[in-house]
Structure formats: structure tokens, C-alpha cells
């Protein structure tokens, strides 16, 4: 779900803030057009309090008349560093306002691969800006987004499959006294 959630965040930012949103693996990104949003990450922070190794997740598959039990996933928070660059300070301030309103108006990120999930997200560090332009005479800002409780499933784990009960027959013998 890490990849699906990362893609969902990029799509959210492209749809509501700026189409020119890119993901960087921490290396230098060539920027050809401003404004631009550059995401770095994610950095994963493991959630030990959510790990329950003995717990199994059960899925009922009524269509095939079976129940599937699998080991519980690991849980992580995804942390993204967000850098944004604009041509003017006013444009930068408008982008910051849009970022803040986005987290208020869309509190859940919807990610989907073989599973559909919704994750709570927010600003870990609010987006902020520099007062003066940088060496290239552009205005930059940054912030940090956190997406909470993303699960990582162990595809190597053996699933246990059980047949569901279709019919119950009860035979009662009369007791003579």
C-alpha cells in the first residue's frame, strides 16, 4: 500500500494544488516550469503499537463460500518533505493557503491497489515560506506531510482458507421414559 498511497498523494496535489507536482528520490530535480511542487520521500516510521503478530485478519468470501485468514500487516506512517517553488511571493502565499485548505477539505487520502483504503493525513510541519527570493530569484517554501497508519501486507505469509458452513442438520432422537 506504500506505492498506492504515494501515488494517491501525488494525484491529490496535482488535482487540487498544481499539475506540476513531481516525486524526487532525494536527488536533484531539473525544474523547467514554475510553480512546481517537489515531494521527497516517503520516510517510513514503524508503528509498534499497532503490531499484533498473533492477530489474524479474516476476510469472508461469500461468492466462493470461504473464509480467508491471513497474518496481520505491519503498520507505518509515511512522511513526505514538500518543497514548492514559485515566481513571486504572492503566488507562494496563495499556494500555502491552498495547501492548508486542502488538508481541511479533504481529510482522507484514498488509495487503491487490490485493496481500497482511506488514510488520515495532515501537515507534520505546516507549509511556510522564505521572505526573500533565493539565488535564482525564485521564491521557495516547504513543509512536511504525514500519512498515518498505512499497512504493509506480508505476501509471503501463508493464508489459511476455510469453507463456510452451508447447511446445518440436527437429528434429535426421542428419549422414551
Describe the structure.
The protein has 177 residues and is an alpha+beta fold. 18% of the residues lie in helices and 44% in strands. The protein contains 2 helices and 9 strands. The strands form 2 sheets. It has a 6-stranded mixed β-sheet with strand order 1-2-5-8-7-6. It has a 3-stranded antiparallel β-sheet with strand order 3-4-9, with no helix packed on it. Strand 3 and strand 4 form a beta hairpin. The protein is elongated and about 100 Å long.
The helix/strand order is HEEEEEHEEEE
User: How many helices in DSSP terms?
Assistant: 2
Work out the number of β strands: 9
In percent, how helical is the residue content?
10-25%
Structural classification: alpha+beta
Residues in β-strands, percent: 35-45%
What gross morphology would you assign? elongated
Poorly predicted ranges (pLDDT <50, ≥5 residues)? Answer: none
Mean pLDDT: 85
Round the Cα radius of gyration to an integer and report it.
24 Å
Largest sheet: 6 strands, mixed
Cα(first) to Cα(last) distance is 65 Å
Brief digest:
The chain has 177 residues and is of the alpha+beta class.
